[in-house]
């Protein structure tokens, strides 16, 4: 099995290339979609995030705009969030591969 990772900054065409690959019948794992699902539906992930960013749980989901502001306000906010989300996304990807 060949695994290809698409990386790059915003606006670099990752979604376009992923869409092209999917249209060719290849399986595409989308980390952004995985993160959105964790933020919106995974209660364990939400609990971990709200321990560090308590004001960002709104109507049972993590409010992404609130989270963006909160990680900028905390000295290591982005690192904290990445330490929560990255292992979960990597685990999901490994399971799906």
Total helix count?
5
- Strands of the widest sheet, in order across it, are 1-2
Q: Secondary-structure element order, as H and E?
A: HHHEEHH
Low-confidence stretches: none
Mean pLDDT: 93
Number of strands: 2
Commentary on this structure:
With 97 residues, the protein is mainly α. 63% of the residues lie in helices and 4% in strands. The chain is built from 5 helices and 2 strands; from the N terminus they run αααββαα. A two-stranded antiparallel sheet has the order 1-2. Strand 1 (57-58) and strand 2 form a beta hairpin. It starts with 13 loop residues before the first helix and ends with a helix. The model has no long low-confidence stretch (mean pLDDT 93).
